[in-house]
Design brief:
5 helices, mainly alpha, 0% strand
Length: 84
Amino acid sequence: MGIFARIADRMDRQSGLMGAMLKRRHVDLENLVGAGSDMQMGAAIRSCMACRSSGECQNWLESDDGTAPDFCPNARFFDQYAKY
């Protein structure tokens, strides 16, 4: 597998995990966009793309654990925009 294919695979995996985490943490995307938090969202995306805890993330997403995951570099960001 070439470098571009590996990069594309990683981007697909990480974006899928981030989407699932946004949903699982009940992030209010309308509130997020309306808050003008483009820079914060960009930083969260870059943080997720660089994250080395993909396996932990996948396991957490498959569990019934409702607490914010300690390993996630975006946990505070998700909590900030969660709708509870």
